[in-house]
Design a protein that fits this description.
about 150 residues, alpha+beta, globular
Length: about 150
């Protein structure tokens, strides 16, 4: 009996394929060989401090709109992966920067865990096969409702 052993690069390649083909995330290899998602015309990301993120996620779950959420432990932020933000109005984020909300700039790489099945602690909510990303409008509206009274 021959055991099939995958190299790390083979595991990463398989993970990237799953991210792309099953979960619809625009994943690719970074220069260092880790999986990344570039914010693009296919996917966006909205970040916020973990405390606000918990409130937003709770509300999105109640509305059955929760999608993938990634923790950035070094920064203390959560990134809500969403449909791409296709609105450039300057007032779009008015009042949200004060509570730490930001939109990840187009083209910025977001490092994805090598384990897409939720066993990596960075996945607050792992992506699920054949599930659409949360519409960015729903994320921002939920942030606005959840952030009421938070600004100093």
């Amino acid at each position: 009996m021959t055991a099939h052993l995958m190299t790390r690069s083979g595991v990463v390649a398989a993970t990237i394929n799953c991210y792309r083909l099953q979960c619809g995330l625009p994943a690719c290899h970074s220069a260092s060989g880790t999986p990344v998602m570039l914010t693009s015309s296919q996917a966006g990301a909205i970040g916020m401090p973990e405390g606000l993120g918990r409130r937003v996620l709770r509300s999105l779950r109640i509305a059955m709109l929760a999608g993938p959420v990634l923790a950035e432990p070094d920064e203390g932020n959560w990134l809500f992966l969403s449909t791409p933000i296709q609105d450039s109005r300057p007032d779009l984020l008015t009042g949200l920067a004060e509570v730490g909300v930001f939109v990840v700039a187009p083209g910025r790489p977001i490092t994805l865990p090598e384990d897409l099945h939720g066993r990596d602690e960075r996945w607050v909510v792992a992506p699920l096969p054949r599930r659409d990303l949360t519409p960015w409008q729903a994320v921002l509206a939920t942030i606005r409702r959840s952030a009421v009274g938070m600004a100093a």
